[in-house]
Design brief:
The chain is α+β, with helices and mostly antiparallel strands. The protein is built from two helices and seven strands; from the N terminus they run H-E-E-E-E-E-E-E-H.
Amino acid sequence: MGEDLSAIALPLIERQDGAWRVLPIEGRFALVYEDGNGAWSVRHLAAHELKIGPGRVLVGGTDQHRGGYRCFRADRVRRLSDRDTGERIERNILDWLTRRAEATRRNRAAALRNIARRSGVAKSGARPVGGCHENG
């Protein structure tokens, strides 16, 4: 029998969440982040999604130090380091995140199509659950 796509499809696909376009993104990032009070901190994030909405972009994932799911405003990320490749981004961070998310979306969509083709399963209609809420 074919693989169960419902468990796989949730984090793999792009979705619309109200006015927000939500793209999958993957990576382990160290973010130098400035909160709403102007305090800077370093956050270690296992990224899961990039939310593009009205006047704002959020990157969401698991905060490795504080635990739990967190979202960070992309315009407040002052520096991003890819912990897997060592690449360090100090300018055009939003553009870099968007390119990374688009590449993740394309790769995951292709992988999902390949799984469906191999298993003979029609496209999953499963919808993702949960989401991102802005931090400070």
